[in-house]
Each structure stands twice: as C-alpha cells, then as structure tokens.
Amino acid sequence: MTIPTSTDVLVVGAGPAGSAAAAWAARAGLDVVLADAATFPRDKTCGDGLTPRAIGEMQRLGLEDWLRAHTVNQGLRAHGFDQTLLLPWPGGSLPDWGSAVARTELDDHLRTVAIKSGATALDGARAVGVRREGERVAAVAFRGLDAARPGEEVEIACRWLVVADGVRSPLGKVLGREWHRDTVYAVAGRSYVDSEMSDDPWISSHLELRDEQGELVSGYGWIFPLGNGTVNLGAGTLATSRRPAEVAIKPLMQTYADAIGGDFGLSGELRMPTSALLPMGGAVSNVAGPNWALIGDAAACVNPLNGEGIDYGLETGRFVAEHIASGAGLGEAWRSTLVEHYGESFSIARRLAGIATQPKVVAALGPAGMRSDWLMTLALRWMGNLVDDADRDRAARVWRWAGRRSMARDARPPFS
Ligand SMILES: Cc1cc2nc3c(=O)[nH]c(=O)nc-3n(C[C@H](O)[C@H](O)[C@H](O)COP(=O)(O)OP(=O)(O)OC[C@H]3O[C@@H](n4cnc5c(N)ncnc54)[C@H](O)[C@@H]3O)c2cc1C
C-alpha cells in the first residue's frame, strides 16, 4: 500500500475515539488517515461494557443491528452488603439497553466502519514526534510504516491532527499534555472466564469488594456477560497520588472470582488477566492547540464513578469531527466543548469518587445505600452519568446543580 504523505485530518490511535473521529470526518467529506501503532485486531484491557450512552453513539454510527446480534442487557444487578438489587437502565433521552462486546472485536469493527466511511487506515504506525509551524502541527513523524526499515521515521503532513492515543497518550505528551494524579484515577483489571451466566440479561457489579484478608476495598468488581459462553470479570479500585492503591489487582480479581464463582457458574482459569491505570474526569491539561485536539482517554474522558470511557471516546470522536468539518477551529474552542459537555458532571463525579477512595466511607454508606431501591436507582443514574441536557426531571436537575456548585469550587476544574 502507498503511504500517504499528507491528509486533511490525521487521526493517531484507532480505539473507539479515533475510529469514531475518522468515520465522522470521512463522512463529512474530509480526507482522513487513521494510524495506529498496533496491528488489528488487537486487544485492549477493558470491561467491554457498553452502557446506554455508548449504545446511543453506536446507533448514530449505524451499528444497532450489529450490537443486538452480540448481547443485549437491560440494566445492572447490584450486589453487596447482603443485598441484591435489579436496577433497569433508566431510559429517558438515552437508550434503555446496554451491551458488551470483547474489545478485540469491537475495536476492529469500529476501525472497519471508519475505513468503509472513507478513511485510510495504517497499521503498525507508531507516532513518535511532530513538526511544528508556530503553534500549529504541520506533520507527524511515524516509525514502523516502512516494513523494510522499521526504525526509519516517515512524516505525514496534516491540516488537522486528532490525538486518540489512549491513557498514556505518548503523542499528547509531546504536545504538552499533563495528567494530574492528585485527582482521582482508577487502577483496574479484567479477565475472561467461562460462565453458565454468559447469556444473563443483566450486567452485575459487586460493590462490596474484599481482598484476600477479607478487608473492604474501595471500588467494585464486575461480571459483564458476553453471550458466547464467557463473561468479562474484572475489578477496579480508586486512587489519588495522596492515597495510592495498595491492592494488587490480579490477586484481587482471583479472590473476587473465588467469592462469587458459585453464583455465576464460573469454571476454569481466569484467562488473559491484564490491568491498567485510568485517568478520569478530565484530569489533564493542554488538551488542544490551534489545529490539534486530544479526545477519548488521551483527554481523560472517563467517568470517575464507574470507569466507563468507550462512550466518551465515541462522543468526543464525533464532536471533534464536527468541529473540524464546520470550520469552528480547535484550540480553546475544543477545550470549551469538553468543558461544556463534561465539565460539571466530571467535577461532581470525581469529587464523590475521591471521597470513595476511603474504605471507611464505603463501609459506612454501602449497607445503607444497598437497603434502598430508590437510592440505588438514583445512584445508578448519577454514577453512569445517565443524565442528558434534555432531561428535566428532579434527579437530573439536582445532578446538574451539584455539578455547577462543584465546578465553581474546583481548584483546578476539568480540562485545565
Ligand atoms: C480494566 C478496565 C476496564 C474498563 N472497562 C470499561 C467498560 O466496561 N466500559 C467502558 O466504556 N470503558 C471501560 N474502560 C475504559 C475504556 O477502556 C477506555 O475509556 C477506552 O478504551 C478509551 O478509548 P480510546 O479510543 O480513547 O483509547 P484506546 O482504546 O486505548 O485506543 C488508543 C489507541 O492508540 C494507539 N496508540 C497508542 N500510542 C500510539 C502511538 N504513539 N502511535 C499510534 N498509535 C498509538 C493504541 O495502540 C490504541 O489502539 C475500562 C478501562 C480499564 C483499564
């Protein structure tokens, strides 16, 4: 394949965020190159859960039938403190169903959607640097593009650069991105395991997560059914630089699996266990320049209360393509868009998540919360940020009010 030397829009990273950006930009008639360091299909450490926000974006991309052919779930079964609650997805302005698809398959499919929309995809292309003209990025340097000379750098010039290179965002760092770990982040792991509950129409979360010594850990364990004889089993905990996570995630997943294995008909080993850090709640600065923007995990667009980020990746991919296609520009305009869409909800969510890094708080509030269907339904809606600007009900208004108050008090608000 001929390597393009220039393009309108260069997207670096072909996870959900990059592929969505590439698909929407190509559909808007722009010339798009979608480059990723990996060769697809590739794995990504994730719970594989698609909540209603993600379903909404997948529908927009035309993928509803594809998703429904995988698995459909109707809500969350919350377990803990001797209680089990069934909490249906609330619906409202967002879809009332969820799904789960292993990332190896989901990301490959989304990338194919981008290609079918007109983007040129490059595998094995690791972005290593940029050439600037003033504040603008004129070109990105890649390694691995020339198979005969893998160490050689090859440049692709661009009018617009979308940085979707994930949690560590190596290209974002080159552009000045800074991740603030004094704000809450997650340490989480996932594995796959055979289960008799693989067709369960509910996803499950265990809010009472205990380590090998039986001590309560802040965070939660999950079982997300994949409809193919297996489930995604994982566990995550919250941390800050002041209160680092003191628990080893892989043994925690095993302890969790041992504790709930009987209830979920689990059998065999935990396969492919992996873990990762997760920046959350817009806890990064320098998210844009005049012709470049960070999206998805690179911009810490992850919900601090449940760790979901596929939906925000898909959304920010669409928004950035709209910015570029409309000529609205990036830079401060892009930062404002992130603040407008996510600032208030991320601010209040990360404040609450910061409080929940203390196991004492979980021990005190968990049992009371789990005794109330009403409280947990509210918590599911707030924790999942299943509140849209269109929602006018009381719970939505309280959530938005709390977000505004929280942001006004933030020493460093999201994306700054
Ligand atoms: C344990 C765990 C469980 C999670 N569970 C869920 C869940 O159930 N639901 C949910 O919604 N979210 C979940 N998340 C979060 C979710 O995985 C991320 O928010 C999501 O993957 C973000 O997508 P992205 O496109 O921004 O980044 P990624 O999916 O990470 O994609 C980034 C891409 O950039 C490429 N790349 C990196 N560096 C370079 C480079 N220098 N040059 C070129 N390419 C590069 C990588 O190869 C990769 O393909 C979980 C995260 C973890 C860690």
From TrEMBL:
Which ranges does the record mark as transmembrane? Answer: none
Q: Which Pfam families match?
A: FAD_binding_3
Task: Write one Gene Ontology MF term.
Answer: oxidoreductase activity, acting on the CH-CH group of donors, NAD or NADP as acceptor
- Gene3D superfamilies given for it? FAD/NAD(P)-binding domain (3.50.50.60)
FAD-binding domain location is: 7-321
Q: Which InterPro entries match?
A: FAD-bd (IPR002938), FAD/NAD-bd_sf (IPR036188), Geranylgeranyl_Rdtase_fam (IPR011777), Geranylgeranyl_reductase (IPR050407)
PANTHER family from the UniProt entry? CONDITIONED MEDIUM FACTOR RECEPTOR 1 (PTHR42685:SF22), GERANYLGERANYL DIPHOSPHATE REDUCTASE (PTHR42685)
Q: What is this protein called?
A: Geranylgeranyl reductase family protein
The record lists the organism as Nocardioides cavernae
From the broadest rank down, the organism's phylogenetic lineage runs: Bacteria, Bacillati, Actinomycetota, Actinomycetes, Propionibacteriales
